[in-house]
Amino acid sequence: MLRRGNSYDEIYRGFRWEVPARFNIGVAACDRHADGTGRLALIYEAPDGTVERLTFDDLKRLSNRCANALAALGVSAGDRVGILLPQRPETAIAHLAIYKLGAVAVPLFVQFGPDAIEHRLADSGARALITDGENLSKIPPGLPDLATILIVEGDNGGHPLFWPTLKHARDAFAPADTAANDPALIIYTSGTTGKPKGALHAHRVLLGHLPGVQMPHDFFPQPGDLYWTPADWAWIGGLLDVLLPSLYFGVPVLAHRARKFDPEEAFAQIGRHRVRNAFLPPTALKMMRPVRAPRERFGLDLRSVASGGEALGEDILAWSKEVLGVGVNEFYGQTEANLLVGNCAALAYLTWHLSERLGIPPKRWWGLDIGTLTEAFQRMRAAVSARP
Questions:
Q1: CATH code matching the domain that covers 25-201, chosen among 3.40.250.10, 3.40.50.12780, 3.30.365.10, 3.40.50.1370
Q2: 155-211 residue pLDDT tens
Q3: Which of 291, 344, 282 is nearest to 313 (CA)?
């Protein structure tokens, strides 16, 4: 965790990675905050407008039940479990349960077609899948490793239902004593070169993301923070830039995924739920720009906005500061290695577009060594040559 300083160099010099030998994402992002005080963890706005609030105590109890249910269905440590769901409580519950069980989560995007889903389930050797009736038809028969499918809602096709199964499971569960290096999740690349490839991340990946979340959100967390993104939690940007880091810090997350992004409704949600922090991909920001006077109309009180995926132009950056009342901090990362470089308005860095124009790169995050493959190869060759 970063300690605030007065300059980038001061913080960089004082930063040290603190990765314990034993670490479990489910415990760190949930159980340690479940102290009986009813601390808010998740706000879910359903498609029909119904709002549900879950505390960390709720998440602990429900993820414990889910872990017990999965274990009773034959899932054990190291087994892969697919999650094919949009932003909703069951998605967060499933992730926490899988990590606490010592199994490996495989997030799947609900807009994938059958072929994309089949490839990821078969390639990962997923033993179980948690999905809903709407997406069940995309699951091909005959996957050799897939033994169990749990259905959250809708037509279950003869498969066990998620909530009735959890109802009969125990509240108590002893989380697996995982090492920080033990596998936790597999996120697939987009497949720009060949078939998508699974990037296997260990439990320590959450700790590795924290500096890259804290800085583009101006020393996240701060009192009153509440985080939302329209990015699906199946992507690394939604899962490891928003959901899990927020829960790790005890910050509530707003969950809602519209079938089609509506910029007016996005602003309305931010306003009515008092969202303070947002990760808004460039496409979303460009769609939101034409909305008239959003701060006045929707009562926005944003503290920080981050974006990544492609560089923003000067016009979007200027619009955000003038109309939203907050500048956009940009960052860059990939599925294999996420949140590597970016900027932070709280330290008055050059914005990304200005950095590009002047040939000055954005700042690397603390604890990272960024360079080209050529530089890395030269360092490796020098190290080998220096050996006796």
A1: 3.40.50.12780
A2: 999 999 999 999 999 999 999 999 999 999 999 988 777 899 999 999 999 999 898
A3: 282
